[in-house]
Amino acid sequence: RDAEDEARETLSPDLLAHSYRSYLFGLSLAALDGAKVDEELCYVACLLHDLQLGDPTPGRCFAVTGGERAERFATERGEPPERAVAIGAAIAAHITVGAAEDLSDPGGFVSAGAFVDVSGSRIDELAPTWVDGLLTRYPRHDFKRHLLGYWSDEAKAERVSQRARPAGTAFA
Fold first, then answer.
1. Integer CA distances (angstroms), 101 to 43, 49, 158, in order
2. Nearest 5°: CA angle at 39, between 110 and 122?
3. Contact 42, 26 (CB under 8 A)
4. What is the DSSP letter of 171?
5. pLDDT of residue 166
6. pLDDT mean for each 10 residues of the chain (172 residues)
7. What is the pLDDT of residue 172?
């Protein structure tokens, strides 16, 4: 419930609906793949996976800063340290190339679910009526247009960070 409240209070309507869709897409793909998942951990990670997407940090990836924030959030609410770390790690890993291939890994679960929603990958494996019902319950709110804006803001923050770094320093 705390994660749901945090997501509702923090995320824009398009990102909130994306978070719910990501979980349900991930859960459906995990069932198709026969992957065993920790549903609560994956649910929390999906709800919180884009906490920082609308609030870029120069020189830092939104997934990493969002993972750190979610880990703190879970720790502050009394989650055991290993679960808090697992939530943060799943969020940080969700944009890793190839992560979506292992839905039993929470990072792969979040990645696969989000990737269906962002790109339509594997959507053809899901029942069209189920997808239609999901989109009715959690509408897209012009998600792709908003997502392009979030990514543009991330890129701008990175350019600012690059200009602020001394010449010859590596990306941090």
1. 18, 18, 28
2. 40
3. yes
4. P
5. 54
6. 96 97 98 97 97 88 95 97 98 94 97 97 97 98 92 83 58 46
7. 46
Q: Report the alpha-carbon distance of residue 125 to residue 148 in Å, rounded.
A: 26
Considering the entire predicted model, what is its pTM?
A: 0.90
Question: Is the separation of the CB atoms in 61 and 151 below 8 Å?
Answer: no
Tokens matching residue 99 = 């992560």
How many angstroms separate the CA atoms of 101 and 108, rounded?
6
Question: Smallest Cα–Cα separation from 67: which of 105, 40, 94?
Answer: 94
Residue matched to tokens 């803001």 = 153
Please, what is the angle between helix 2-10 and helix 39-48, to 10°? 20
d(CA 35, CA 29): 8
What's the CA gap between 138 and 16, in Å, rounded?
Answer: 9
Paired residues of 57 in beta bridges: 60
CB of 141 within 8 A of CB of 13? yes
Contact call for residues 57 and 157 (beta carbons, < 8 A):
yes
